[in-house]
Amino acid sequence: MAEPAQPADDPRRWVALVVCCSALFMTLLDVSVTNVALPSIGSATGASPSELQWVVSGYTLAFGLVPVLAGRLGDDHGRRLMFQIGVAGFAVTSVLAGLAPGPAMLIVARVLQGLSGGLINPQVAGLVQQMFRGPERGRAFGFLGTTVGLGTALGPLVGGALIVLGGPELGWRLVFFINVPVGVVVIALARRFLPETPPTGRHRLDVVGSLVLGLATFCVLFGAVQTEAAGPAVLWLGVPALGLLALFYRRERRLTEEGHDPLVDLRLFHRPSYTSGVVLALLFFPAMAGLPLVMALYFQGGLGYSALASALGVTAYAVGNAVAAPLAGRVVDRLGRVLVVGAALTFGAGAVGLALVARSVPTAHATLAMAGPLFVMGLGAGGLITPNQALTLMDVDPVVGSTAGGVLQTAQRIGLAVGQAVIGAVFFASIDGPGPESYARALVAAVLVALCFVTASVAVGVRDLMRGRQARR
């Protein structure tokens, strides 16, 4: 059963897109803003380093656990409803975080925030599928990509400004309170402008499948985000994760074959464009997440920058992302996978330039010299994420658009966590002493690992490109 899109001349669909992007921006901003606020949180609440890590990791873990389940709930019971529930939950848990008297309450609030944010994002993907068709869909995804870039770029600046405005005690709390008025406005506009989702007739949720997939995702994400704190032994959680994923696959295949209601209809993966896009995201996102992370570590540990200064040091990356995303969205319908492959190669070229600058430019000029390669990397990331999302969901029935988007987002979150763990571990293992030279060598090692991920993603993109050309003959 296909869903009717809003009429092509209905201007409300663009207003609805702005509403969706506002909620998405809020969830993204909360990550980068909180990173800047960690020192203030530590001094105000007495949180230990491990508790501060969980302020960030708790959000990341929870955010990555629910996209598939949230997407299925949106498809079955209404994306507008689930979107509003997610935004309301995010606003309420932001109040809890802002009022937290100590680190324990703050961590709990951050976990609940992550669950609410994970409920929002699949609905955005499904609503774009529902509201837009053809080239317009690519432009809509480009708008989403711009939102991601701006959220990443502005987070440190907004966080720093709020902390200065509120002082050491109130400033970090304002970081969370600012979500409340934004959430109220978004909910009010969502009721007016977001379209209803026609009922699918599916109301039986695969609870067992949801639990199995959730446990598997938790093992992967927990192992990745806790590698630095708990040591490499935590990576053994990947073993039960593989077993749980195999069990999930067998269950979903059986439910699909028997005509029941699986959490994920595996017939989605009968579409080569969808399968290629999910695998490509799983391979590219480690490089995209890992290198900006180690750049911040390089600036702070190698060059002695503050957290805010190191965040500003990678601003060129976020700017490149924000510039490329809308442009890529406009041409993806014409260029297809050629654009994705070219963007991955662009990212790789920027990473090579980063390594060359780290080894050859004096540290006094490193920040300025690295702005160019970081901008090129940002162009590659922005030029890949938006087109890959549009092409991955291109042949998917909008009826299951949120579920399909949830699976893609789960692959992206796993890729992000794996990249931060693997590339971060290589970076730390390569540091052989204090000083910028040692950190520069470690950065080069991290770039080499990232290039392996980029090469694998290029191979997937080229394979899908060749498949498409053969199908047109």
How would you characterize this protein structure?
- This protein has 473 residues and is an all-alpha fold.
- It has 17 helices and no strands.
- It has helices at 12-45, 49-65, 67-77, 79-99, 103-131, 134-177, 179-193, 207-225, 227-230, 238-257, 272-302, 307-313, 315-335, 337-360, 366-392, 401-430, 436-472.
- It is globular, with a radius of gyration of 21 Å.
What is the total number of structural domains?
A: 3
CATH homologous superfamily grouping of the largest domain: MFS general substrate transporter like domains
Our estimate of the beta-strand percent is under 5%
Cα-to-Cα separation, first versus last residue: 30 Å
Task: Report a brief summary of the structure.
By secondary structure, this protein is mostly helical.
